[in-house]
From TrEMBL:
Record-linked InterPro entries: Tcp11 (IPR008862)
A matching Pfam family: Tcp11
Any one Gene Ontology BP term: signal transduction
Similarity comment: family membership: Belongs to the TCP11 family.
Protein name in the entry: T-complex 11 like 2
Length: 143
């Protein structure tokens, strides 16, 4: 896939054709009728449409990946206990787990580094200037 000649459209079309061949082979082994030309064309078209931004398959996969990453961020220690992999993502499970752990590390580092800075800003927005002034000002000596 890293080659300069990589063509996603061709690859997706080839996957569709290969899937049709495998499905027909399995159907014949079980004594069932094979897929007709219309169904095969439809299946190949569904695979080919994955490259489009508005593809239902692509949006479903995207939603499942985002769900996995959100659940990973909500864990107290993502390295020790990973959330279950959503359906259909088993093929990329290893890559997604590595990417998710790296993402969680970056998010947690940002929380530690920038948390105090944003806490003051949020405090000012939520509670007004007087609440923020109390935490920013050094304690006054007692008289």
């Amino acid at each position: 896939m890293c080659e300069k000649t990589f063509n996603l459209k061709e690859v997706l079309n080839s996957i569709g054709v290969k899937s049709c061949v495998e499905i027909n082979k399995t159907l014949m082994e079980r004594g069932l009728p094979t897929l007709n030309a219309e169904v095969q064309a439809n299946l190949i078209g569904q695979f080919s449409s994955v490259e489009k931004e508005d593809s239902p398959i692509r949006s479903l996969i995207d939603k499942r990946i985002q769900l996995y990453l959100k659940s990973l961020l909500s864990l107290p220690s993502p390295k020790k206990c990973l959330p279950p992999m959503p359906g259909g993502l088993a093929v990329i499970q290893q890559e997604l787990e590595v990417l998710g752990c790296q993402y969680a590390n970056i998010v947690n580092l940002n929380k530690q580094v920038y948390g105090p800075f944003y806490a003051n800003i949020l405090r000012k927005l939520l509670f007004g200037e007087e609440a923020a002034g109390k935490t920013d000002a050094p304690p006054s000596p007692a008289n």
